[in-house]
């Protein structure tokens, strides 16, 4: 069974999608949401295998929601607009359906879902070119992972630092860490993850046994005592 969440701000659109999905017994619709914010709350309360989501909604968009969906949950966009398709697949969407959704087109989506499961295909670490939709002021930009220098835990959210400034993900640092390749990112402390090739130099920290990692943009991030030796080893090619 695929535990499924349907997200759309239009009640009739949710009802129609549920009708189209009814012939597929393995698709178990567990919940529905009218906003991305409501969907995030539901995803914090229970795990879903599949999410169908609209893109243009009040508040957070479907693209912003998709960037925060957990690792093992697949998602499909259902929208009346075709101009977001590239952005959707950059976010690793399973599929992109245009409204009104044709039954035969939805069937291909379900086939793709089942083929992935049959082959044992699972989400792994995100590639360096994976896009994350981030908001800077009133502008939303897609930033690639190789453009991000640092992730910082702030409460239940994660701050993201890149050349455009600071943005936020509505996700914990531990969830972010699950998707990051340890060959590219290093957790310097309980609250910070930095991109390894963004580290310019390492300096002694204020507390005994700690270090400071200085990044390419000049910012300084404290390295905890327990991580100092591992960080040094990353840059020791000869053992």
UniProtKB/TrEMBL annotation:
Chain positions found as 4-aspartylphosphate: 54
Record key words, sorted: Phosphoprotein, Two-component regulatory system
SUPFAM superfamilies named in the record: CheY-like
Span of domain HTH LytTR-type: 144-237
Domain Response regulatory: 3-114
InterPro entries named in the record: CheY-like_superfamily (IPR011006), LytR-like (IPR046947), LytTR_DNA-bd_dom (IPR007492), Sig_transdc_resp-reg_receiver (IPR001789)
Protein name, per record: Two-component system LytT family response regulator
Species the sequence originates in: Rheinheimera soli
Lineage: Bacteria, Pseudomonadati, Pseudomonadota, Gammaproteobacteria, Chromatiales
